[in-house]
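Quick start: load a record and inspect it. Here is LiaF transmembrane domain-containing protein:
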Amino acid sequence: MNGKTIMKTVLVIAGVYLVLKLLGITLGAVMSFLFPVLLIGIGWIGLKNKHSLIGVSLIVIGALLLIGKLSGLLVILGIVGLIVWGVSLLLSGKRRAT
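Running the structure step on this input writes:
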């Protein structure tokens, strides 16, 4: 890389950081989601390179960390799923009764 490419990259990174900070998203919050995804990605690469124990271990650890971070979203999706299921049962019961 030459000096101009490095300068352009630094400006882009600084701009993204400032926009995230303006939106109230700190780098720590971004990294807390990025780290488990990175572990899963490295584990996938390990599986493709025939290192199954390391690959599976990293994928499991990354998935557990990611589930912990996304637990609130998973609960909301579960609740919405139950509501949709209940409404579909109610509507299918009315069609059979008539």
